[in-house]
Structure formats: structure tokens, C-alpha cells
Design a protein that fits this description.
Number of strands: 5
Distance between the termini: 46 Å
Low-confidence stretches: none
Strand order of the largest sheet: 1-2-3-5-4
Largest sheet: 5 strands, mixed, barrel
Helix content: 25-40%
Strand content: 25-35%
Mean pLDDT: 97
Radius of gyration: 16 Å
Number of helices: 5
Shape: globular
Number of domains: 2
């Protein structure tokens, strides 16, 4: 059993009663877990698996795949301020998509985890701006070691990883 602290990146229906849950952690990196029974009405996960939550989690590693069994979740930060505003949700989603794009699965990413944690905490309290978004992109390229002098960070990300998340263009269109 491994225990760590992680930010919930996204969930996906796995079966009639289970969810796939994707986490960003400081010491384990991007981790994919299955929360068995999470979709049942009286699930022990009820109210604990929502986007952008930070939680202490415990999981059992699978020997056969990169999909591990989630066994415990204890929410530390809810970030309900993000969920009250569509633009904040869109910005947080873009930040999460960037982290997933540049991070290797199950490799420690302390700088990226801390960057995402601080960005989500900011969005919980403040609205997103173009400046905040560009600062996040700049930090991504710096921490990933792909920064190029005189080149816009989003262009560098697009060139190195072959694409940018589609949500970026929606976010740019809506930001003041």
C-alpha cells in the first residue's frame, strides 16, 4: 500500500459502479487509479472525488498495469471557489491538461506538482487573467527544461509535444 498526497486531475466512468481517477502527486507523479464502487449511492468515496481536490490517498500498485487500486481518500482542500465560475474551471482544466501533456507517468514531478497546487489555490481565490495563464506556461517550459530564448512558451510546448490542449483557444477567447 502506498500513501501520498495528490490533486485530482480528472475522473472517468470505468464500469457501472467504478471510476477511473487520475492524480498528480509530488512524489509519484501522474497516477491512474480505479475507485471500485465509487458510483454506488453509499460509497466511501462519496463527496471525495471531485475535480481539483487535494487529498491524501492510499493505493495498491498493480503488478500487471499502470492502473492501481484506490483504497482510501481523505480530502484536504476542496477549492470550491473554482467550481463557482466557468472561466476558473476552464483555466484550471487547461492547467491540468498542460501538466498531463508534459509529465511522464509515474515519475516524480515536485516542481510541476507545486506549480499546479499554487495555480489552483490562486484560482480558488482570484479570477484567471491572460497574465496568469502565460506565467503558468512559462513555468511549465522552465521546469520541463524546454524553454527557448525569445520564443513564446505556448509555441515551445506545441512544438515539443506536437500539440497544445484545445481548451487554450477557448480560454484565450474568454479571458479579459
Amino acid at each position: 500500500m502506498e500513501k501520498t498526497t495528490g490533486i485530482l486531475l480528472r475522473t472517468k466512468k470505468f464500469s457501472e459502479t467504478s471510476l477511473l481517477v487520475y492524480w498528480c502527486t509530488n512524489d509519484v507523479g501522474i497516477v491512474h487509479t480505479v475507485a471500485r464502487g465509487a458510483r454506488r449511492p453509499k460509497s466511501p468515496y462519496s463527496g471525495k472525488l471531485d475535480l481539483f481536490y487535494t487529498a491524501d490517498l492510499a493505493f495498491a500498485r498493480s503488478r500487471k498495469s499502470d492502473l492501481h487500486n484506490l483504497s482510501e481518500v481523505s480530502v484536504l482542500t476542496h477549492r470550491s471557489g473554482i467550481q463557482k465560475d466557468y472561466l476558473r474551471v476552464l483555466a484550471a482544466s487547461y492547467f491540468v491538461q498542460l501538466i498531463e501533456l508534459v509529465a511522464e507517468p509515474e515519475a516524480p514531478i515536485p516542481e510541476l506538482y507545486e506549480l499546479l497546487d499554487k495555480a489552483l489555490d490562486f484560482l480558488d481565490e482570484q479570477p484567471c487573467t491572460v497574465r496568469v495563464m502565460k506565467r503558468f506556461e512559462l513555468r511549465i517550459v522552465q521546469y520541463s527544461g524546454i524553454a527557448e530564448e525569445g520564443k513564446a512558451p505556448h509555441s515551445t510546448i506545441g512544438d515539443v509535444f506536437g500539440r497544445l490542449p484545445k481548451s487554450r483557444s477557448n480560454l484565450i477567447d474568454l479571458l479579459p
